[in-house]
Amino acid sequence: MGTLCACVLAHHQPHHHSAESKRMAEDGRDELVATDDESDHTAADGSSSLNNTMVEEGSTLVRRMEICVAEAEKRSGKNTVNMQETFTVYLIETRPMDAVAEGRNPAPDSLWRRYSEFELLRNYLLVTYPYIVVPPLPEKRAEFVWHKLSADNMDPDFVERRRIGLENFLLRVASHPVLSNDKILHHFLTEEYGWKEVVYETGFQAKADSRIRALSATFRVRNPDKRFMEMKHYSDQLQSHTSQLLRARARVADRLYGVYKVHGNYGRVFSEWSAIEKEMGDGLQSAGHHMDAYAASIDDILEEEEHYADQLKEYLFYAEALRAVCRKHELTQFELEMASQDLISKKQQHEELATGIVRTFSFKGMTNKIFGQEAPVQREARIKLLEELIAEGEDTVKEKTVECEEHVERAWVDMQRFKEQKDKDLREALINYAVMQISMCKKGIQMWSNAKECFLKM
Amino acid sequence: MSVGTPRGLASSGQKPIAEILHPLSSAAEPLSVSVTVNLGGDKTTRVEFDLPEYCVRRRYQDFDWLRIKLEDSQPTHLIPPLPEKFVMKGVVDRFSEEFVETRMKALDKFLKRIADHPVLSFNPHLNSFLTAKDLNKRQGLALLTKVGESVKYVAGGYKLRARPAEFCAMGEYLDTFNQKLGTIDRIAQRILKEQSEYLTELREYGTVYSSWVGLEDELRRPLEGVAGCVTTCCGALEDLGENMSQDFLPVLREYVLYVESMKNVLRKRDQSQAEYEARLEAAILRKQEDRTPMPVEVEKCQDKVECFNADLKADWERWQSNKRQDFKQLLTGMADKNINHYEKCQAAWESLITLLQDKQTEDKSSETN
After folding, report:
1. Does A64 fall in a domain?
2. The complex's ipTM?
3. B60 inside 8 A of chain A by CB
4. Is residue A370 part of a domain?
């Protein structure tokens, strides 16, 4: 089986943006981050080994490391409710890049991680970098299966494809100009024990936006950036098309399987028939064997096609990540609008109190009318309070404006990067699909030609 | 009727008859075909034909008439079968192009097999069939008489003393062969069904790619390309299916009929042997009683049986040989069609890759410029 054990060869790359490296340094990330200040970038030479799309022009790879998800193993242990369970762990191997480049072959450092730990890492990245289209994980459960394919998470083929998917995830993250510098990521790759505690200590869970807030923002935001709305619409469409395609492909695979397998029956009947024939016997018998081989050939063909399905799935899930970035924009925009609105209303209140002119209906105004105006002392106090609140409110609006603008700026850059990556990857996926089809046709021609030769000898 | 070795064809320098069948059909009247008889070159070798070429119009019932006449006049020989006489109305469109085409091929084969036969090709009924403007058909009576006679010896409860081993073997072979034919027919039908379902899904699959095109800009070409290839593959698959149902299955089914005909001849041979043995036994009893010599009819019967056996053996060999050729052709044809199908698909996908890779180099060179 053509496995995609992509151990990307990271190149020693200086930083693309000196500004970016400064920002990273300011965040207090440690020395593992690139410290070069050169702002020129050398064109990234596509790594000679597989997966050219990983290596981007001037991208920051984890230049010190060669990363690989080498193996998968079954383990048993007690889970959180003290029940026995079996789960799969994956071996992550890392090696310093310079050692490999120099031709030395040191043994890799390695550690084992469960799928749930990958999930934790990703959730951390999602919260910490809401302006990045975060690469997705391979699916948790097998979906879009055609009937002969196992939906069992413990099935060795599923585990193998998941191993490849996890490696793909790590390579994507490690080659991302922003994500690859993350400390937690480095920890994940190098420190087996205590990593979870470190992640929780970042307090990222508290920073996560609540679902409800996010949803309400989507409905109530007034002036979201048009480009982001278009992107969001695109992400919906992308999700729809990829899932349709995956479903249709699974159905096609199912049917094709049926067609091939029925030909196996020819094998049997030719064999039986050959028993009663004299001159025709040998030809029939051998032709029968070729029919059996033809029927059997579909298994490998369809297994190979699963890689194509996996590539489509990655972008199905990527669509979700893209949408998340757009929703974050809606949220920040909405919060800005709310803060602005709040500031305006406070200013108005202040104006009313200060000048006595009531512009808008208020209960205070009503009660004033009914019960008489409040005492000047009280009014002064309230005016004072409002002034403080207004000052705070102005700060808040400034903050929110910065937050919103920064998000827009950074997100737009990453969305462009994502678009280019997507175009390249999917184009390659389609070409590879065509290559697979050609291979299938060649095999078919070979089998039938073999059978034909036998028929001619009848 | 032939006695001893039948007259050969090539060996005796006699040229075979080659026929060409052209369909003539009009909606108003049932199918009639035009039979063109072309006597390969040298007309003098076939003296019973006056002209070098004949062209006559015949209907299915004329072919049926010929078959019955041949069976009557050459009871010891295997007469090739005709395609099914009655087709269910509503299930098969008797005027559709495919049906006409298929039937015509079967009728053509029927005539060719007769023309190839060293004995049957000289039959006067065949001559009339091929040359007469109007066939003077009188059927029924003769057939009934023949049937009556043989029924007497079977219905009379007389059993064969011993069927010679070779004829038993033939019977067994035919039974097994028939079974296998049936199985192959079922498999072929199943394949057709599976392929048709696959085709339905494949079409749907292609439209998903097409619908995605509108969403993308850079990916437009590859997506369109894939959709196009899928459509081409659908077309190729359709052709394959058509071919299987029009060429492969009818020939297979016709062989089932052929097996039936062969079995009938074997039965008739059994009957003639039964008749002989019955007469022989009766004669022996009488001989024992009143010392009369062996009656002539008994001897005639014995001759008849021996003739039958000889004819049958010769026909059997010929049938086996033809069967081998026919199936070699049939199966090779099936393989060819499948190869052809894959070749079409492969060509489509390969041209897509070329197209996409050309575009890629185009883009790269425009980037560097």
Report:
1. no
2. 0.79
3. no
4. no
